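Risk mitigation, structural track. In case the binding assays with magnesium ion fail to produce interpretable data, a predicted complex structure has been prepared as a fallback.
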Amino acid sequence: MSKWVYMFGGGRTEGRAGMKDLLGGKGANLAEMAAIGLPVPPGFTITTDVCTFYYANGRTYPAGLEDAIEAGVAHIASVMGASFGDRKQPLLLSVRSGARASMPGMMDTILNLGLNDDTVLGLIETSGDARFAWDSYRRFVQMYSDVVLGIGHHYFEELLEDLKADRGYILDTDLQAGDWKELLGSYKALVMKRSGAPFPDDPYDQLRGAIGAVFSSWMNQRAITYRRLHDIPEAWGTAVNVQAMVFGNMGSDCATGVAFTRDPSTGEDTFFGEYLVNAQGEDVVAGIRTPQHLTILGKQANQSDLPALEELMPDVFRQLDAIRRILEKHYRDMQDIEFTVQRGALWMLQTRTGKRTPAAALKIAVDLAREGLITREEAVMRVDPGQIDQLLHPMLDPRAIRDVLTTGLPASPGAASGKLVFTAADAEAWVRRGEKVILARVETSPEDIGGMHVAEGVLTSRGGMTSHAAVVARGMGRPCVAGAGAVRINVTDRVMTVLGREIREGDLLTLDGSTGQVIYGAVPMVRPDLGKDFSLLMEWADSIRRMGVRANAETPADARVARSFGAEGIGLCRTEHMFFEPGRIVHVRQMILARDEDGRRQALDLLRPYQRADFIEIFRIMHGLPVTIRLLDPPLHEFLPHTDADIQEVADSAGVDVRTVRQAIAQMAESNPMLGHRGCRLGITFPEIYAMQCQAIFEAAIEVPPKDAPSMVEVMIPLVATRRELELTKAIVDQAAKDVFARCGKTIPYKVGTMIELPRAALCAGDLADDAEFFSFGTNDLTQTALGISRDDAAHFMDAYHRHGVYAKDPFVSIDCEGVGELVKIATVRGRAAHPGLKVGVCGEHGGDPDSIDFFEGIGLDYVSCSPYRVPIARLAAARSACRRIGNGHKELADSTA
Ligand code: PEP
Ligand code: MG
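Fallback model:
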């Protein structure tokens, strides 16, 4: 026969904390606290299996439940020395829901159950307080009628207000025992009128009704919505906890409170909590009375005049403080607790893992490991990479008021405020005169790099999570809100409208790149101090992880940030960004518009010294670590001028007229540039471009002294689909190396590898691996080409796709494991079969996404490469994935208790 009910308290506890699936979170923790000897009011838990049965059998209960409940009530009664329905020593009960995952406030609770016209007399006697007893009784009738009989609170509130008006009372506390008793009469009449039946007097009828209502509340709209938002399966069901009532509102020696065993905002090891004297649980959270602090320190820190529990009830406080330590040791984590003091006796009503800020999560994890309560692996598992992400960027002060205009995609985390500008040139000009700016564009192009670099933050009205703006902003660590569709930008008039509001150039704007909010005005910011705890956790993560973590960086500034965040090399240096620097773009344009190879060579000769200097600087910064340089990738027309002034400048420097330049621009237009003349196709059609880049790379590598040189120079070919493409372009690289080495009389080691970013390349990886010394998955393009979804246009429909559950997450953010991930897996297996030991990494945006990193760990990639600001996130995520795999029994955990 199944066991439907588990008792706890009074030396008879049947459940434990590990039984959350069956007993729910609250029930399991009540059992655990009772089992370790903490003062818990006795009770019993009706299991989630009963809930499952209830819904599977037309809302009926399994045979034997009724008897088990009666036994449970008898257990509570015997521990409390009271009896259910007894006139002298009435037992009163609370009935609460408790699912596996906490669903605060979503389901129903009933307190003071067991009261009727008889038992209230017993309560008057045992409490010695008639006012309290009648008030408790009417609270029960009101709560029960609402939850079980469906008669809304407001009907009862109206009756209470009428009575107060009639008597000239202002506060509820003005009511005397007789008033409450009289009100109760009206309450019961109301119940009779609205439900057509008298309020149930029999305590067992009351209990049956309450249990049914709690099970039913699993399917109320609030609970259904909450489950959908938090991915809680309906099949889990809820448990029901029936417990002896304890009262925090029986007089001035009573209290009720909530507390955290450590400070949930800072993580400091201080007891943090609030309480109210002579109150019931809901009064603390309702915010009607000002709660008092638990500790004298807390009271002082908050400049409160009200006495701390430590002063008012020192014995109770000492006992509670000891329980705080016991719970932390026992659960090995910070706890969120609820307690009640009845006539000087402390009762624990709840304990659960406490929610905390990212800063607190970090501090608590590191402190607990240092204190020896958890291992280093556990500490690493306790900090979510998303929390580290938040810590690395300035955040909006959570207390500040926000005038939110609209919400776009949270494309690059962190917050920024500045004056609104609409062009990259304006951004640069305004910053030169000392302003801080936010750059708003419909979408950005490589031309906007300068403006993006000086701006505090970037806003676009179009484009997805891997649009140019998003990728570049993340790379720069610049906050960015992308694809804010409600924003209409009018560059000509320097104004944007958002849902009817006009925002002009120079107006202050704040972006929250972590939530996608676009806010009017400047919101105050806070930047949490990372400090020693952060470095320590990262050290632990590094000692655990298997995969390498590199950075995508192309400027010296990015490379420095990457190194300071612990990058183990550069996994992707996108050389095209180097072409946009002032002084160069004009030569680039000259090169593109040249009529023949000679013209191109002349322009390339002018560019080579710049490229060489760039590489020298990056090599020095990355000394001792590998650097992967990708040859030119984007369609050339991205470099072409758009403004009249730029077109004129190019015409002048090339010695042609403006019309010729315009014609050339028109000729180069492509209808589908992402699938057009780009990547290795450029190297094949204009080999001199790749030759120039390689010459600069090898000259730079030879020029830096060995102690300042990278451990390996890796040249990478973009957008390869066929082996022949790789052969042709690799030949250019090898020839350039040969020429430079011969001329300088010196050689350096180098490798040539390919990006895998087209489905054909993934499928034919075995073929490519014959010629490639490494693979790096360009998962941005691979996602785009595998799913046939344009990187830059996805934002328009991704939201709808998400709502309809087409992709669980934006596939440009988190790898589509079944599709794109499968291609990565196939390519890795086939590549390594052909080329044993082939080094395989990822350099698309997914390289910085924790869920994708978990997938890459699972298929055994060698490293991930991500934007510099994500390097710590990737280090932590890679360590967590390794821990999970070790946890699955792949490898023994080293004994690393701190
Ligand atoms: C990619 O496609 O994933 C990649 C890294 O290259 P890019 O984003 O520069 O196209
Ligand atoms: Mg690519």
